Amino acid sequence: MRYAVISDVHANLEALNAVIKKIREEHIDRLWFLGDIVGYGPDPLKCIETLEKEADVLIAGNHDQAAIGLVDIAYFNPYARAAIEWTHDILGDKERAFLKQLPIKREMDGVLLVHSTPIEPGQWHYLMSVKDAFKNFRYFKENVCFIGHSHQPEIMELSPDNRITVYREHSQIREGHRYIINAGSVGQPRDGNPDSAYVLIDKNSIKINRCPYDIVSTQKKMRLAGLPAGLIDRLSRGI
Questions:
Q1: pLDDT digits (tens, 9 = 90+) for 50-98
Q2: Is the Cβ–Cβ distance between 24 and 16 less than 8 Å?
Q3: Is the predicted pLDDT of residue 109 greater than 90, yes or no?
Q4: Residue 75: left if φ>0, alpha if ψ -120 to 50, beta else—which one?
Q5: Is residue 39 a contact partner of residue 66, using CB atoms and an 8 Å limit?
Q6: CATH architecture designation of domain 2-235
Q7: Domain range list for the chain
């Protein structure tokens, strides 16, 4: 079984289309999506339509829920809040209904999918350190947990003797070990690399892949939509 895991598209259609094209070339069997279809970017409607068609499993992110009024936008920074308000006005009834029915986590086949963290997934905490990982491993029973939210792709491996090793690009899935895997972000990478990130799982191999896309076209759309300049500029720097 070969499958791909993606997260945090954030209404960036150019990035999403580029990743889906690359994934098709990988001949995967399943595509799992970890939340935040919308927010920040200029193409929420088309990204919802594309993921509804292409993804086998989808869960909700905090921006998805905020755009339909299920999460208070007061805690978002001003740039994010402005983009959420813009997205809210763009969404139609069909898109709102689709986002509303998305769960915030899925448990299946020994794998947990959650946008933020296994600890209180609806509170949208961040998992940013080995210390955070130690806490979160205690809150799920599965061997593998996929997350997004921080836009920082990495693989955290917990050994049977309770040590954590962090991998940035590739790891094997070892018997008796457990994993938290952050798929990074398709639409707004923040690890200093502007290329879209996604995870490819092939038997016992985990690989974080990168995919370039037409950043300039996305930025032009964002300017035309009147989205904040800070959100536009950061795409080309991957921050």
A1: 999 999 999 999 999 999 999 999 989 999 999 999 999 999 999 999 9
A2: no
A3: no
A4: alpha
A5: yes
A6: 4-Layer Sandwich (3.60)
A7: 2-235
Greater confidence, 10 or 108? 10
Count of beta carbons in the 10 Å neighbourhood of residue 142? 16
Query: Can you tell me the distance from the alpha carbon of 174 to that of 168, in angstroms, rounded to the nearest whole number?
Result: 17
pLDDT 10s digits, 145-163: 999 999 999 999 999 999 9
Residue 56 structure tokens = 């086998």
The structure tokens listed for 113 are: 């999918």
Tokens of 219: 């930025």
